[in-house]
Design a protein that fits this description.
The protein is 76% helix and 0% strand. It is built from 35 helices and no strands. α22 runs antiparallel to α23, α32 packs antiparallel against α33 and α33 packs parallel to α35.
């Protein structure tokens, strides 16, 4: 480190170009930070003296050139992080917090446009080194101190960093005296959003950082604004949406919108929103009244007609719902407006409201039109997959099991494999069709005959057969289908897992063990199978075979860390610590870029009493520069090392 310092200082002396000198000084300060982290020594000293001297140099340079202080500030905050990791000093966060309130304001006054970015950098490090409450306290203090003109141009810290206000509030938990200060800002933002539109600050009433404890207060404030602005359609719609969609006050939101509708304030979009809310709340009579008015105004809107069908179904007016569907088909055909999307939408709602005959007819038409539009090309098509799913459901309800299975299979084949939800929906349609079968064994017998004739089988269908048998608790027949699926796709981990579970459900311990051996033979890198097998042998009172199953963990991949890691953890649970140390050594041998193995090795060494070696391992973790995702490793190692030295 000292030699590196001398080289950089010599370079600085040789260059007159200010830009080059700035870059070299930044590199010098980075060297000082790394020296501090690795407990090295340079001309400024070691440990806390080095920390204090580096702080002073960086603070001076930031004030000398505030416009370019951003990178220096990042190095400055990183200096405090490294200092706290090596306890030089232990409360470096307090030093940073003190400078943020006494020294940083002078810098922010000179670069007001960058002030929010600089304050955020400091606040984030305070949160990281201490806790979220202290970071939030600094943000609030900065908000109170910043010039008001920053808010007019959108550069205020609340405008730029409201996300951090919300997240750190959530992390902090109990806020104490900070709560009224923050709540005042949130309520003011809520009022601004409702009066002027916008979503700024929505983290506080939506998403994972929402402030649920204050929902009552937010709802009361929203109702107050709605009462004071009873003639503004836009404000009333925003208030109603806030109450219902964000604050969970569904009835209050509907009441605001319904009252505005009675007074003739709502436009078509707002009435459509009200109609859907009524249906969602099962207020079908009110929904029908609003929907009929919408259809009277726009008879060509198929969405309104579909909504009317769903409302009539909710009112148990089945015949009227069917007549509405058929009437819509007749009108669209007469007006030559019938299309693929029209057929698909009507088919989907027909399946939903239990008119499977209509759903089948319309979905077949939509599929035919889709194929025509694509030129009968195969391949993935999410839209086509959705059509086939609806067709499979409709055919299943009609008792056409074989045709339903055919449609569901087409849905799987046309689904996009990168969209897991899409594939799962297609598989669900397949199992649903099989569950609706009047005679599942007969369906399987027919399928087996086709397989025998063509020589083509499908593991997905075998798994679907097994799934239905499982739900009916017919585990023997489930196993039969899963064994066939395993032969077709030996690498499917789900098949192996379900096969073991099926044997367990039958109470067949030997069958479960055989299934695990089959998994190990066909898919040897699924490590969970080895530990499961060992546990079963242990429960059966066969420790020798249990031990053999565990040692196979590392034999299958001796130069990969995963097996050694699992075996090491198992040895620790067995209190066989010396053997755990052996396995952790293998982990660090095969995975040198992951500090978690070194930390586990150090803990195991401490447990066995090998304290000197544990210290060396921990010093290695502290001195090595790891990937950013392992940033906490050095502090964890420092904590362990400190506990050893006490």
């Amino acid at each position: 480190f000292a030699e590196g310092e001398r080289i950089i200082l010599r370079e600085i002396d040789q260059w007159d170009l200010p830009m080059r000198q700035r870059r070299l000084r930044l590199r010098l300060y980075g060297l000082y930070v790394e020296t501090l982290r690795r407990s090295g020594r340079v001309s400024l000293g070691q440990g806390k003296p080095l920390f204090d001297a580096t702080r002073a140099l960086i603070e001076h340079d930031m004030l000398e050139d505030p416009a370019r202080a951003g990178q220096l500030l990042s190095t400055y905050t990183n200096l405090h992080r490294r200092a706290q990791e090596v306890r030089a000093p232990q409360d470096a966060w307090r030093v940073l917090d003190g400078w943020a309130r006494t020294g940083l304001p002078a810098l922010l006054e000179r670069v007001p446009i960058n002030s929010t970015q600089y304050a955020r950098t400091v606040a984030s490090m305070i949160r990281q080194l201490k806790n979220a409450r202290h970071g939030l306290a600094y943000l609030l203090d900065r908000h109170d101190a910043e010039p008001t003109w920053l808010r007019r141009i959108g550069y205020a810290i609340w405008q730029q960093d409201v996300y951090h206000f919300a997240r750190w509030r959530h992390e902090a938990g109990e806020l104490g005296d900070l709560e009224p200060r923050l709540l005042k800002l949130v309520v003011a933002q809520l009022e601004t959003n409702l009066l002027q539109g916008g979503h700024h600050g929505s983290y506080f009433w939506g998403g994972k950082w929402r402030w649920t404890a204050k929902y009552g207060l937010f709802a009361d404030e929203t109702s107050r604004i709605a009462e004071l602005n009873g003639k503004s359609r836009a404000i009333l719609v925003r208030c109603a949406t806030m109450l219902r969609s964000s604050l969970g006050r569904g009835k209050r939101g509907v009441d605001v919108l319904a009252d505005a509708n009675k007074r003739g304030l709502l436009d078509e979009n707002a009435r459509w929103l009200l109609a859907r809310w009524h249906r969602s709340d099962h207020a079908y009579a009110e929904a029908l009244a609003v929907t009929d008015l919408l259809i009277a105004e726009r008879p060509q809107n198929i969405g309104y007609r579909i909504h009317r069908v769903e409302v009539l179904t909710g009112l148990k007016r089945t015949k009227a719902a069917r007549d509405e569907l058929l009437g819509t088909e007749k009108a669209w055909l007469a007006q030559k407006r019938w299309s693929e999307s029209t057929a698909a939408r009507l088919g989907a709602v027909a399946a939903k409201v239990e008119f499977p005959d209509l759903a089948e007819r319309w979905m077949e038409d939509a599929i035919r039109r889709r194929h025509d539009a694509r030129g009968n090309r195969g391949g993935q098509d999410s839209t086509l997959s959705r059509y086939y799913r609806s067709l499979a459901i409709a055919r299943g309800k009609l008792g056409k099991t074989e045709a339903a299975v055919e449609a569901a299979s087409a849905a799987i084949l046309s689904a996009n494999p990168r969209r897991r939800g899409e594939v799962q929906s297609a598989l669900k349609a397949l199992t649903g069709a099989l569950q609706a079968a009047k005679s599942l064994p007969g369906t399987i017998e027919t399928y087996d005959a086709k397989v025998a004739k063509s020589g083509l089988d499908a593991p997905i269908l075998r798994k679907a057969f097994a799934e239905v048998f499982h739900k009916r608790e017919r585990y023997g027949e489930e196993i039969e289908q899963l064994l066939l699926a395993r032969e077709l796709d030996a690498g499917d981990a789900d098949v192996h897992k379900r096969l073991v579970n099926a044997f367990d459900a039958l109470g067949d311990a030997k069958g479960a063990v055989d299934a695990l051996f089959g998994q190990i033979r066909l898919a040897p890198h699924v490590l969970a199978a080895y530990t499961d097998l060992a546990d079963r042998y242990t429960q059966a009172g066969n420790p020798a075979d249990a031990e053999r199953a565990l040692t196979m963990l590392v034999e299958v991949s001796p130069h990969q860390a995963a097996g050694h890691r699992v075996l090491a953890t198992k040895r620790e649970k067995q209190k066989r610590l010396a053997e755990a140390v052996v396995q952790w050594r293998q982990v660090v041998r095969t995975e040198r870029l992951d500090p978690t193995g070194y930390l586990a090795l150090a803990r195991a060494l401490i447990a066995t009493g090998a304290l000197d070696e544990a210290r060396e391992v921990l010093k290695h973790v502290i001195a090595t520069k790891w990937e950013t995702r392992f940033d906490v490793a050095a502090s964890q190692a420092a904590d362990l090392l400190a506990s050893l030295n006490r």
